[in-house]
Amino acid sequence: MRVKSKVRERRRIAGALLLSLFIITIFFALNFFLRNDDYLITQVETGNYSEIKNIVDQQLAGSYLGIFPKANKFVYPKERIKNKIKTELPNIKDVTFSLKNDELKVEVIEYPEQYFWCQKDDNCYAFLSFLENKGLIANEVNYVDSPDVKISIDGDAGANWYIIYEAGENADNLIKNFSAILLADTLKDKNLNDLEYIDMRFGNKIYYKWSH
């Protein structure tokens, strides 16, 4: 009986050792095949290539719990990389990732310059975009006599005019009120470049002045 018991114990130990060896082999095999050390960074009109590459390098270095490499195609720290890039490079609007042929592609999209004219105010930027779609190109945004926002518009032959409104005003209200004044009989079908300003600081009451 003792002999059989020792044989069973040895078989149990041998089985446990073989199972452990199998698990370790699978673990290292997965780490080898899933590891992703190659990645390509493509960007849209940005000069931050080296800074972004350094951030990605840093975030892919090391491992989780000292076991799984962070440069793993399935568990790489996507959100951490994205947040780090956007925190350290405030001109970056969004970061996207894709995998193709075991290659990690990191693509970034920058905020346009006008967004920073607006001091990162989404309402101001949305209004600027609306004006641009109307063919009214801003050349400057100033925060004057706080809390007023003054948008200078390119006019004919360098004759600029401006739109002024209260900072913090909702973009939908700005667009609605501006669209309404353009349909008013006094401005409809007129050359806006002959204006000196449009004043939108008083709610639905909108004032304007011709330059001559």
**Please, what is the average pLDDT?**
79
End-to-end span in angstroms? Answer: 116 Å
Taking Cα atoms only, what radius of gyration do you get, to the nearest Å?
Answer: 31 Å
Strand order of the largest sheet: 6-7-8-9-10
Low-confidence stretches: none
| Percentage of residues in DSSP E strands | 25-35%
Give the SSE string. Answer: HEHEEHEEHHEEEHEE
Q: What structural category arises from helix and sheet content? A: alpha+beta
Question: What global shape is seen?
Answer: rod-shaped
Helix content: 40-55%
How many helices? 6
Largest sheet: 5 strands, mixed
Count the beta strands.
10
Can you give a write-up of this model?
With 212 residues, the chain is of the alpha+beta class. Helix content is 41%, strand content 28%. The protein is built from six helices and ten strands. The chain has helices at residues 2-34, 49-60, 78-88, 113-117, 122-133, 171-183; strands spanning 39-44, 63-64, 68-69, 92-100, 103-110, 138-144, 148-153, 161-166, 195-202, 205-210. The chain has a five-stranded mixed β-sheet with strand order 6-7-8-9-10, covered by helices on one side. A three-stranded mixed β-sheet has the order 1-5-4, with helices on one face. Strands 2-3 form a two-stranded antiparallel sheet. α2 (49-60) packs antiparallel against α3 and α5 runs parallel beside α6. The longest helix has 33 residues, at 2-34. The radius of gyration is 31 Å and the shape is rod-shaped. The termini are far apart. The model has no long low-confidence stretch (mean pLDDT 79).
